[in-house]
Write a structure and sequence with these properties.
The mean pLDDT is 95. The strands form two sheets. Strands 1-2-3 form a three-stranded parallel β-sheet. Helix 3 crosses helix 13. The chain is 54% helix and 8% strand. The protein is mainly α and 338 residues long. The chain folds into two domains: 221 residues, 3-Layer(aba) Sandwich (Rossmann fold); 82 residues, Orthogonal Bundle (Tyrosyl-Transfer RNA Synthetase). The radius of gyration is 22 Å and the shape is globular. It binds tryptophan.
Length: 338
């Protein structure tokens, strides 16, 4: 059976939060158990350097993210789980791709354009202020991540769709010049993935500083849930579920029946304190077993390291011969007989 290759990377700059969990990690772990799929999931630690120059933070985040995925039950017998930096063929491929990528294509990347736009709005008129070549060519590194393993499907958030399109463009360009080496990847937006609001009602995101870390100890979890913003309606007054953060988060954790029951309680005027308690219990009961495994893993980091090394070995059994054939294709090989 030819399994379809699903690949995604997680940038190692932060602590996984409930939004990451419901939006990306939970669906990806579910997919890791699907026998028709061969998932490649990796810690995008070279991507971390684009926006974070704090070594301790990158290191800590790599540990936390790896522990999170393992604690949540990632099936590493099916999924290939690795650290990007262990696959030394990736930066090599990134260079080959850099040399066929039009600068004009990179000029159009949203992340770069947003940075330029921000500079142009501010008074001191250097459009390139604070923009590194890492940020500028980031879509090429991402293309190398994807093309290295000929991924067919790339589950990503909406903000990343453009990068997958760029990876397709870059792959086509390379194929056109050097022959058909790369499959053209497709972005997939998961139907099971939820976008959660954060403490302040905006999308939960580390850049808004409004997150609830996934494995916060129970007491802290309760405290943070109590901080989620609501309107000022009193208990007994009927409430809208639409636009209510508590309800939106509850939906990502509860069954259809439970959601219906809560809907009725909103109409009857459930108090916010009561709803927060319901939400806490729902999340806490889903997370608790994994939280225990997470804490145990953090006590045994060598176990995490071992898993990542095994993943790297599997990944490199593909990337090493593949980069060799790509070197040949571009004309980099031993002198003399081939
Ligand atoms: N850039 C992605 C993000 O910020 C992470 C990432 C790196 C990625 N390489 C990838 C995602 C390859 C999918 C495929 O979310």
């Amino acid at each position: 059976m030819n399994k379809s290759i699903v690949l995604t990377g997680i940038t190692t700059t932060g602590t996984p939060h409930l939004g990451n969990y419901a939006g990306a990690i939970r669906p990806a772990i579910k997919a890791s158990k699907n026998e028709h799929v061969r998932p490649f999931y990796f810690l995008a630690d070279y991507h971390a350097l684009i926006k974070c120059h704090e070594p301790a933070r990158v290191r800590q985040s790599s540990l936390e993210i790896a522990a999170t995925w393992l604690a949540l039950g990632l099936d590493t017998s099916n999924a290939v789980f690795y650290r990007q930096s262990d696959i030394v063929e990736i930066p090599e491929l990134a260079w080959m791709l850099t040399c066929v990528t039009a600068k004009g294509l990179m000029n159009r990347a949203h992340a770069y354009k947003a940075a330029v736009a921000e500079n142009e709005e501010s008074a001191d008129a250097d459009a390139d202020k604070g923009i590194t070549m890492g940020l500028f060519s980031y879509p090429i590194l991402m293309a190398a991540d994807i093309l290295m393993f000929n991924a067919n499907k790339v589950p990503v958030g909406k903000d990343q769709i453009q990068h997958i399109e760029m990876a397709r463009d870059i792959a086509s360009r390379f194929n056109h010049i050097y022959g058909e080496h790369f499959a053209l990847p497709e972005a997939v937006l998961d139907d099971n993935a939820a976008t959660l609001p954060g403490l302040d009602g905006r999308k939960m995101s580390k850049s808004y500083n409004n997150t609830i870390p996934l494995f916060e100890p129970e007491k802290k979890l309760r405290k943070l849930i109590n901080k989620i913003k609501t309107n000022s309606l009193e208990p007994g007054q009927p409430k809208e579920t639409d636009g209510c953060s508590l309800f939106a988060i509850y939906q990502a954790f509860a069954s259809a029946d439970e959601i219906e029951a809560i809907r009725i309680r909103y109409a009857e005027g459930i108090g916010w304190g009561d709803m927060k308690q319901q939400l806490f219990e729902k999340i806490n009961s889903e997370i608790t077993p994994a939280r225990e495994r997470y804490e145990a893993l953090l006590e045994a980091p060598e176990h995490i390291e071992q898993q990542l090394r095994e993943g790297a070995e599997k990944a490199r059994s593909i990337s090493m011969p593949f980069i060799q054939s790509l070197r040949e294709a571009v004309g980099i090989s031993r002198i003399g007989r081939r």
